[in-house]
Each structure stands twice: as structure tokens, then as C-alpha cells.
């Protein structure tokens, strides 16, 4: 008989082993949640300290309008909020920094949760600072009156989450724009307060996924400075604000058949259009337009006839000082119109009642600047005096 096979440990030893194993399991059962809770508290403290440091150093914090839903928070996050206040779990949507020494807050920015936008104003960035900014998981960067080299701007190409960039002043120079194609994830480009030569915008045609372009307050070398626009055939949004707009522009935007939003704001120094009707015909040919805003470009009844060909329009805003009741018949073709802003238009109540027939129209703004809404029948009685329709 094998004595070793028959051996059984004493009962007290088996009991001790069971106790030790059970104790170890209990420690693990309690310890892991405690470690998890502790890490959440520590991370929450770091976020709060980072936010306070940014504000103390002069940065401005912008939070989402809606606080995070408590149901979406983990148990640890709810406990942290109970112990340290609601601020501990609030997200930061945007940070704005003005002036020098942004390096003092760059480490803190890496702890800010859900940071999407960084605005930097009136400073000079070092290469180290630009490299640190490129590591932040930003979607939007705005550089206003910021001094940095074209090579530094290209450093931002390492940020694979960056979709929007706005360059105002020195950072929007011709040499800087040449580096933008390296930022391969860009969808939106904004340019302002600079001078555009005839080929400054050419690099934008090499940005593969560019779908939105905003240009404002720029000086044009000639009308050909905007010529590259005709090559941006995948644009969905084009905003040209406070620009010297002339008849030649409309030939440049005619090929942009995918446009859904168009804003044209002619600078006050620009001469009047020679053939405004042809310009409006071009706009009417953009069949995918949903949002159209025309400023300092007076729109007549005849112009409305052309614009009404863009039957997908959901919002129309224009100078309506030349629009009369006769033009309303053209607006009635826009069955998807939600919001109508025709400033200066002198329309009678009868025309307003006609506009009320548009199935989804929600608001009208006319000459007095007051907003008329569907809930009060746009400020007119539903029937004409005398009981007529």
C-alpha cells in the first residue's frame, strides 16, 4: 500500500488553507473596486486642478450648455461628484488663450476631458509649444494673430483628430497655406485678415476631404485670387464674408454643385454687380442649397424667381428692400423653407398669409426686424378682413 497516496492533511490544515484562499479572494473582491474608485478620484482631482490652473493663468474655459447626464456617469464618477461637486465631472468644450506664455498651461490641457477646441490669440509659439499642441486630441484649432513658422504649422499634421483650422492674420499667409495639404484630416478651413495672391488658395485644392471654407475680411490681389474655388467641387459649405464680390465670382462658384450652405457678404467698398440677374441665376442652379445668406446684395422679385429654382432651400436670408408682394409667388415654390429673413421687405398681411401656407415654415423676419413665428400665425389674422381666405 502506498503510504503517500493514502496521506490526508490534518483537518485544521485544510481549514486554514480554505480560510487563506477565501481571504485572498475577499481582498481581491474588495481591493479591485477600491483601486478603481481611487483611480477615478485621482483622475477627477487632476482634471479639476488643470481647469483651475488654466483659469488662474488667464485662460477662458467654455463648457457645453448641457451638463453630463448623471445616468451616463460611472459609479466612481458619481461618487467623485458627490464628494467634490458637479464641476469635477463637467466637460470642457473649448479653451481660449490670449497672450504669451501658453507653455505654462499646455501640460494642464492634456488633463482636460472632452476638449475639442483650442483658440490662441496674440502670441508667438515656439516649436516645443506647437509640438505639444499637436499632441492634444483637438478637433478645432484657431490661431488669431499668432506668430509661427510654416514648418510649425505643418507640425499639426501629426494630430489625426484635427478637422477644423481657422487662421487669422500672420498664420494665414501664402507660405502657411502651402502647408495645409499636409493636414490630411482637415474638413473645414477658415481664413481671415490676410492678403490672398492669385495662387494663395491653390493648395486648398489638394486637401482631399475639404468640405467647408470660410473666407472673411481679406484683401485680394485681383479677382483671380478666388479662381481656385471652381476646383473645390466637393465643397458643401462656402462662406465669403466682407469680401469684394463682383460678377466674376459667380462663374467661379457655378461648378460647386454639392453646396448646401452659401453665404455671400459683399464688402461695402465693392462696386455694384453689373448683371445681378445672371448672378442670381447661378445661385438658383445650385440645386442642393439648403441655407442661403446674401448680405449687401439687394434681391429683387426677379432675383427671387431665379433663387426659387433651388427648391431644397430651408433657410433664406437676404436684403429684401426691393421685394414686394409680387415676389411672394416665387417663395411659395420653396416647400422645405423653415426660416425666411428678407430684411427691408414691405409685405402686406395678405402676402404673409400666403407664406403661412408653406408647410414647414416656422419664422419670418421682415422690415421691422421683429420675428414672426407660426405659433401666432406670423402676426396676422388667419383670414382676410371680411372673412375671405
TrEMBL record:
Keywords: Glycoprotein, Membrane, Signal, Transmembrane, Transmembrane helix. Its main location: membrane. It is found in: Membrane. The chain crosses the membrane at residues 15-37. InterPro entries: LRR_dom_sf (IPR032675), RLP23-like (IPR046956). It comes from the Bacteria. The keyword Membrane applies. One of its GO terms (cellular component) is membrane. PANTHER family: LRR RECEPTOR-LIKE KINASE, RECEPTOR-LIKE PROTEIN 12. This is Leucine Rich repeats (2 copies). It comes from Blastopirellula marina.
Amino acid at each position: 500500500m502506498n503510504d503517500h497516496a493514502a496521506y490526508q492533511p490534518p483537518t485544521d490544515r485544510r481549514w486554514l488553507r480554505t480560510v487563506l484562499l477565501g481571504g485572498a479572494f475577499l481582498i481581491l473582491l474588495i481591493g479591485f473596486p477600491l483601486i478603481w474608485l481611487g483611480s477615478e478620484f485621482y483622475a477627477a482631482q487632476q482634471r479639476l486642478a488643470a481647469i483651475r490652473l488654466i483659469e488662474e493663468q488667464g485662460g477662458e474655459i467654455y463648457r457645453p450648455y448641457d451638463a453630463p447626464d448623471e445616468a451616463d456617469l460611472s459609479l466612481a464618477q458619481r461618487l467623485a461628484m458627490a464628494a467634490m461637486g458637479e464641476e469635477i465631472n463637467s466637460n470642457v468644450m473649448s479653451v481660449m488663450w490670449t497672450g504669451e506664455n501658453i507653455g505654462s498651461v499646455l501640460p494642464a490641457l492634456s488633463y482636460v476631458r472632452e476638449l475639442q477646441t483650442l483658440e490662441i490669440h496674440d502670441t508667438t509659439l515656439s516649436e516645443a509649444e506647437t509640438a505639444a499642441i499637436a499632441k492634444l486630441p483637438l478637433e478645432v484649432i484657431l490661431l488669431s494673430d499668432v506668430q509661427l513658422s510654416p514648418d510649425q504649422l505643418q507640425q499639426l499634421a501629426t494630430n489625426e483628430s484635427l478637422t477644423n483650422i481657422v487662421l487669422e492674420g500672420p498664420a494665414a499667409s501664402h507660405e502657411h497655406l502651402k502647408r495645409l495639404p499636409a493636414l490630411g484630416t482637415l474638413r473645414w478651413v477658415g481664413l481671415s485678415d490676410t492678403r490672398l495672391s492669385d495662387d494663395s488658395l491653390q493648395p486648398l485644392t489638394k486637401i482631399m476631404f475639404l468640405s467647408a471654407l470660410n473666407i472673411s475680411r481679406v484683401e485680394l490681389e485681383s479677382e483671380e485670387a478666388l479662381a481656385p474655388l471652381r476646383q473645390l467641387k466637393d465643397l458643401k459649405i462656402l462662406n465669403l464674408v466682407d469680401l469684394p464680390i463682383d460678377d466674376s465670382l459667380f462663374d467661379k462658384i457655378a461648378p460647386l454643385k454639392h453646396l448646401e450652405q452659401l453665404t455671400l457678404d459683399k464688402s461695402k467698398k465693392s462696386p455694384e454687380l453689373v448683371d445681378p440677374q445672371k448672378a442670381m441665376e447661378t445661385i438658383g442652379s445650385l440645386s442642393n442649397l439648403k441655407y442661403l445668406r446674401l448680405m449687401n446684395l439687394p434681391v429683387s422679385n426677379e432675383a427671387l424667381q431665379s433663387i426659387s429654382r433651388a427648391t431644397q432651400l430651408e433657410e433664406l436670408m437676404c436684403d429684401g428692400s426691393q421685394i414686394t408682394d409680387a415676389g411672394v409667388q416665387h417663395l411659395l415654390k420653396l416647400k422645405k423653407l423653415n426660416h425666411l429673413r428678407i430684411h427691408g421687405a414691405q409685405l402686406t398681411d395678405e402676402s404673409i398669409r400666403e407664406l403661412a401656407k408653406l408647410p414647414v415654415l416656422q419664422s419670418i423676419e421682415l422690415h421691422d426686424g421683429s420675428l414672426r413665428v407660426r405659433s401666432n400665425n406670423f402676426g396676422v389674422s388667419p383670414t382676410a378682413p371680411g372673412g375671405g381666405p
